[in-house]
């Protein structure tokens, strides 16, 4: 009986291996650029024709290969990158499997011209169907030039599934950008149909990011740098409010290798938190450097996925680095209100329980103007003028144009940060002359039991009266008189609806309280009240976004106004 199991022919094995490594033209671009960088190139040139299906050529000024090495480099599992099992534990190069050139040569017509510094002549090798068809000597400079033509000419099934030339070209350019971003000290040049379209001079990481993303987009990036032990994390992230509807321009590198990681993507999105809508994504360029022994790059044929020895530790470092960067001054626009009216000098109204200096009072569901907390120096004769637009927005002039402030979102941010500050010490309360009784549903009672310790820190005093009844004995000083019962139920509803938006329960409770306690859209404010609100808003840590991520401040510059008026 003939055996059913047979060893595959060599050419068939190469094409199967090629199916894992060479998915599309961009895969060839990636592999050839990686080889050039591993060879120590300081300048790399890439040519693309017909989306990479007709031609992909990469030239570098690296160390080059001898004739013997050039012949071996196209064999399967032939590599100069590793020599022992121990080398796999600390990969410091891009390629190491010895599959790239062998796989490419099995599905395309390939030519390699290479020369070392010591060799008097270069070596030219032709490969077709995975076999070396000719070897000859030729003139050439130090380095390697690899030309790949007629990709998938002998694999019609794979060729049929390729996209349009334009689509494949975009993927090739993306692979080019990834390599260029991760190696700013190397000159990268791109030719399309023999026409130079991109020439990136050596420079710093910031200069390379600016040259690839453009000045307009780079202007919205915030840099950061964080490290702990052998792990370093640095890069650039987009400011809140500059998010996109797609995941374009998201670059993550580990030891200069581009990777994709759900764990680290979660860290980035968690750092932004509610500053992003559910359908928005930030753009960023992140560089992680760690001991090669702490990362396994040998878990995927294309090496685009990696595994870390301590996923949680890296997640937390990225999260904290980006979170702190988004709170830094460069992450928010600078506003300078322009004086335009007489200074307000009216004593503050008296409430039933005088709040501490600088605290907003909602005695009449409006901020209390306190002249001691004004942001304008006493020596200045004038102060900015504010206008209320539709009892919803506060309008004022700034040096570069106009600014609009959402009064509800602004007060929400102020109350949110005050509630968070209660972590360090309980907030001020006002005892109720006549405690109010409120009944809640059984499921709401369970939720209230969960968040009650946090509400007490904010300033509430709520007692269980039995049978689902609660007695409200004290509330924060910001709560409007007569609204205590409705406010408690509103906080419960808001908390249940938005709990998953926040990283911890304290922030969720603080956000629910702030949202339901803040002045509302439609509340009319006096000039003093608007000034007090703006004053305390810009004293907050993050004045430009409400706890749920909505913008508090919107600016319209003079250029936009001039454009709208046709100036």
Note down, in words, how this protein is organized.
- This protein is an alpha+beta fold and 567 residues long.
- It contains 16 helices and 24 strands.
- A hairpin with a 2-residue loop joins strand 4 and strand 5.
- Helix 1 packs across helix 4.
Question: What's the structural blueprint in terms of helices and strands?
Answer:
Elements: H1 10-21, H2 25-38, E1 43-49, E2 55-60, H3 67-72, H4 100-106, E3 109-115, E4 122-128, E5 131-138, E6 143-149, H5 156-160, H6 165-182, E7 187-192, E8 195-200, H7 205-213, H8 215-218, E9 221-228, E10 231-238, E11 250-254, E12 257-258, H9 262-272, E13 284-289, E14 295-296, E15 307-308, H10 311-327, E16 339-342, E17 382-384, E18 387-389, E19 393-398, E20 401-406, H11 407-421, E21 429-439, H12 442-458, E22 461-466, E23 469-476, H13 484-498, H14 505-517, H15 527-537, E24 553-557, H16 558-564
Parallel strand pairs: 1-7, 11-13
Antiparallel strand pairs: 1-2, 2-6, 3-4, 3-6, 4-5, 7-8, 9-10, 10-13, 11-12, 14-15, 16-17, 18-19, 19-20, 20-24, 21-23, 22-23
Helix pairs in contact: 1-4, 2-6, 6-7, 9-10, 11-14, 11-15, 12-14, 13-14
Highest-level CATH class of the largest domain: Alpha Beta
Instruction: Spell out the CATH superfamily of the largest domain.
Output: MutL, C-terminal domain, dimerisation subdomain
| Class derived from helix and strand content | alpha+beta
User: Total number of helical segments?
Assistant: 16
Hey, roughly how much beta strand do the residues contain?
15-25%
| Count of beta strands | 24
pLDDT < 50 runs, ≥5 residues: 342-381
Distance between the termini: 91 Å
Taking all residues together, what is the mean pLDDT? 81
The strand order across the widest sheet is 5-4-3-6-2-1-7-8
Task: Give me the CATH fold name of the largest domain.
Answer: formyl-coa transferase, domain 3
The proportion of residues forming helix, as a percent range, comes to: 25-40%
Rough outline: elongated
**CATH structural architecture of the largest domain:** 2-Layer Sandwich
Main sheet: strands, sense, barrel: 8 strands, mixed
Count of discrete domains: 3
Based on CA atoms alone, the radius of gyration comes out at: 32 Å
């Amino acid at each position: 009986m003939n055996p059913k199991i047979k060893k595959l022919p060599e050419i068939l094995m190469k094409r199967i291996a090629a199916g894992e490594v060479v998915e599309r033209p961009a895969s060839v671009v990636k592999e050839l650029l990686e080889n050039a960088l591993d060879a120590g190139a300081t300048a790399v040139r890439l040519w693309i024709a017909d989306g990479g299906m007709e031609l992909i050529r990469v030239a570098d000024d690296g160390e080059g290969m001898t004739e013997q090495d050039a012949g071996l480099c196209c064999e399967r599992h032939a590599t100069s990158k590793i020599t022992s099992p121990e080398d796999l534990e600390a990969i410091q190069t891009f390629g190491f499997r010895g599959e790239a050139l062998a796989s490419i040569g099995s599905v395309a017509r390939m030519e390699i011209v290479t020369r070392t510094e010591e060799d008097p002549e270069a070596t030219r090798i032709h490969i077709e169907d995975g076999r070396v068809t000719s070897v000859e000597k030729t003139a050439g400079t130090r380095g390697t030039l690899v030309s790949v033509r007629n990709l998938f000419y002998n694999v019609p099934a794979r060729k049929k599934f390729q996209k349009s030339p334009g689509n494949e070209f975009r993927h090739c350019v993306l692979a080019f950008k990834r390599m260029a971003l991760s190696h700013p000290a190397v000159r990268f040049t791109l030719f399309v149909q023999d026409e130079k379209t991109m020439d990136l001079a050596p420079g710093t990481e910031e200069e390379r990011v600016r040259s690839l993303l453009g000045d307009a987009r780079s202007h919205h990036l915030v840099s950061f740098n964080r490290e702990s032990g052998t792990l370093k994390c640095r890069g650039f992230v987009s400011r809140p409010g500059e998010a996109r509807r797609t995941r374009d321009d998201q670059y993550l590198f580990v030891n200069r290798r581009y990777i994709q990681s759900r764990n680290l993507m979660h860290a980035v999105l968690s750092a932004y938190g509610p500053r992003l809508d559910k359908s928005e994504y930030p753009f960023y360029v992140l560089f992680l450097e760690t001991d090669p022994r702490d990362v396994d790059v040998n878990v995927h044929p294309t090496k685009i996925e990696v595994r870390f020895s301590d996923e949680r530790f890296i997640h937390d470092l990225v999260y904290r680095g980006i979170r702190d960067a988004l709170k830094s001054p460069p992450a928010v626009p600078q506003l300078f209100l322009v004086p335009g009216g007489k200074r307000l000098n009216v004593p503050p109204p008296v409430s039933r329980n005088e709040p501490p200096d600088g605290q907003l009072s909602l005695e009449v569901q409006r901020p209390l103007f306190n002249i001691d907390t004004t942001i304008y120096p006493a020596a200045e004769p004038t102060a900015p003028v504010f206008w209320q637009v539709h009892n919803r927005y506060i309008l004022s002039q700034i040096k570069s144009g106009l600014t609009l402030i959402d009064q509800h979102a602004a007060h929400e941010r102020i109350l949110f940060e005050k509630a968070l500050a209660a972590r360090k010490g309980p907030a001020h309360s006002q005892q109720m002359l006549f405690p109010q009784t409120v009944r809640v549903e059984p499921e709401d009672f369970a939720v209230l039991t969960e968040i009650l310790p946090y509400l007490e820190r904010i300033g509430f005093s709520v007692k269980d009266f039995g049978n689902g009844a609660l007695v409200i004995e004290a509330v924060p000083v910001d709560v409007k008189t007569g609204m205590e019962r409705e406010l408690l139920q509103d906080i419960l509803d808001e908390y249940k609806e938005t709990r998953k938006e926040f990283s911890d329960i304290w922030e969720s409770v603080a956000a629910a309280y702030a949202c339901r306690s803040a002045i509302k859209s439609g509340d009319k404010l006096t000039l003093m009240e608007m000034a007090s609100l703006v004053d305390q808003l810009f004293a907050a840590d993050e004045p430009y976004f409400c706890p749920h991520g909505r913008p508090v401040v919107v600016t319209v510059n003079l250029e936009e106004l001039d454009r709208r008026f046709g100036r």
